[in-house]
């Protein structure tokens, strides 16, 4: 499969929506190639909306529990996990995707 054909879903577990999370989503939406979807899993539905992402209130689960909860809801070929206080660099996907074009590569 070519890297152009791969789609990427991103999961961000968090306790609540913060300015850092908002910046992370903006950075994800600016990536080229673009991500297919961004799923944000805060503890509750209270708080501001996050433009460009889908919020799924998950309750007070651990980050790992929220990641596990998210995987069944995603549509991308690949799933990337990002912390709510991190933003990807523009080279994040172009550097990673070529490795996954090889069917022998898995993570």
Model description:
The model has no long low-confidence stretch (mean pLDDT 91). With 107 residues, the chain is of the alpha/beta class. The longest helix has 11 residues, at 19-29. It contains 3 helices and 4 strands. It has a 4-stranded parallel sheet with strand order 3-2-1-4, sandwiched between helices.
Radius of gyration: 14 Å
Through-space gap between termini:
16 Å
DSSP helical segment count: 3
Strand content: 15-25%
Provide a compact summary of the structure:
With 107 residues, the protein is of the alpha/beta class.
Which terms would index this structure?
single chain; 107 residues; alpha/beta; 4-stranded parallel beta sheet; 27% helix
Give the topology.
Layout: E1 8-13, H1 19-29, E2 37-41, E3 54-55, H2 63-71, E4 78-81, H3 92-100
Parallel strand pairs: 1-2, 1-4, 2-3
């Amino acid at each position: 499969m070519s890297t152009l054909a791969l789609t990427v879903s991103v999961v961000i577990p968090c306790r609540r929506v913060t300015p850092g999370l908002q910046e992370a989503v903006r950075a994800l939406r600016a990536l080229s190639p673009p991500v297919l979807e961004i799923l944000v899993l805060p503890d509750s539905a209270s708080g501001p909306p996050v433009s460009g992402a889908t919020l799924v209130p998950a309750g007070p689960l651990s980050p790992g529990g929220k990641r596990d909860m998210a995987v069944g809801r995603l549509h991308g070929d690949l799933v990337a996990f990002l912390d709510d206080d991190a933003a990807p660099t523009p080279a994040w996907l172009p550097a990673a995707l070529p490795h996954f074009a090889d069917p022998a590569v898995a993570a």
